[in-house]
Amino acid sequence: MGLVRTALFNWAFARHHQGTLVFRIEDTDAARDSEESYEQLLDSLRWLGFDWDEGPEVGGPHAPYRQSQRMDLYKDIAGKLLDAGHAYHCYCSQEELDTRREAARAAGKPSGYDGHCRELSAEQVEEYRAQGRTPIVRFRMPDETITFTDLVRGELTFTPENVPDYGIVRANGAPLYTLVNPVDDALMEITHVLRGEDLLSSTPRQIALYKALIELGVAKEIPAFGHLPYVMGEGNKKLSKRDPESSLNLYRERGFLPEGLLNYLSLLGWSLSADQDIFTMDEMTAAFDIADVNPNPARFDLKKCEAINGDHIRLLDVKDFTERCAPWLKAPFAPWAPEDFDDAKWQAIAPHAQTRLKVLSEITANVDFLFLPEPVFDEPSWTKAMKEGSDALLRTAREKLESADWTSPESLKEAVLAAGEAHGLKLGKAQAPVRVAVTGRTVGLPLFESLEILGKDTTLTRIDAALAKPTA
Predict the structure, then answer these.
(1) pLDDT value of residue 95
(2) How confident is the model at residue 246 (pLDDT cuts 50, 70, 90)?
(3) pTM of the prediction?
(4) Is 469 designated active site?
(5) Which letter, b or e, does each residue of 363-379 get, where b requires 16 or more Cβ atoms within 10 Å of its Cβ?
(6) Which among 177, 204, 266, 375 is placed 20 to 30 Å from 427, CA to CA?
(7) Which option is the CATH number for 374-471: 1.10.10.350, 1.20.58.1190, 3.40.50.10860, 1.10.10.60?
(8) 117 among the known binding-site residues?
(9) Please, is 253 exposed, middle or buried when counting C-beta atoms within 10 Å of its C-beta (0-12, 13-18, 19+)?
(10) DSSP 3-state assignment of 123?
């Protein structure tokens, strides 16, 4: 969810300013990244409705846009940084690094890299190589304070002791994120970067690298950065990729609309106005200003997300609604046989169902009584509705319904109301046994419209079956 929210803000920012949105695939970790994950990412972005001006599938002047296909570029730039003295080989083992960091902490000093290999002599280098050590490449941070204006957080300052030299190439020659992203930003002429707050500590490092790339003639300028607030989960903990509620696929499978989900995610750090929570993506992009993003962490509230999605479901025209429900009206979601599905009944009930759903997957349980041979009884609902005396009420309701006009939901309502009055009950109490007998549940779609669509014969047959069912 955090990744989608970041993509959304970048997309809205680019569209608001009629800019160029660049979509780049960070797949330099061969052990973690696969062709399957790449295809899933593209599919997810398509489903959400994002488009991009440069990147996979659309191309662009700075192709390729997959980092795994740009390795020669990174190797070349790393070599230039080494030759110019902006980077150096570091032979420190992990054990040595850990020991020195612990000592620094114990002395109350910053525990970052201490520059041990910054100025190695030729003899020291030869000795390390004789030991079989393979170096990493570290960037040499300048001994100066770095200040920049964050688009979300304002002016930020980092002193040298808090931004030590850092690795840009692994010992096996693989480039690190700290090198490849600034290099790609430079070569792709990126002007603005909106990213998560967790990357804020790396920004002064990258600014220093940009300055070196400008000196080398690789970069033209340093991009403007905006660091977006954390998305928090349960217990006010940062929502991580491992949290179930963080998975985009989960929301897609439950039947969230892309526009409903994006509407909610946009509210995690931004708002269109103080009194408007529901809006389209066109309305968002027209109004989006990065300066309006709140830097404080935003909490993911599933109930509010569902409520906003429900509002977007109700904004659909009925034809669109029925089409979007289609996956949940067949296997593996539907419990009825394909031949028992009646499209005429579905088209008739759809407008009533549309007013009740929070997510599309709820449609299956809401309409199953129309297509199953008999209702699936929710036993707690049955026990709750069929209290002592309910069978007598149900018999009276059956008599009234048998003589009612079945072309009018209002007539069916009057029949159940009359049955309730005969037993000293208001409509709400009177209709509960009827609803359970016919649909199997105490809550659901508008009852009398449902009865009309189900039909007289089936309704009366189900009431007879309920009367024959033991109440205890």
Answers:
(1) 95
(2) confident
(3) 0.90
(4) no
(5) bbbbbbbbbbeebebbe
(6) 375
(7) 1.10.10.350
(8) yes
(9) middle
(10) helix
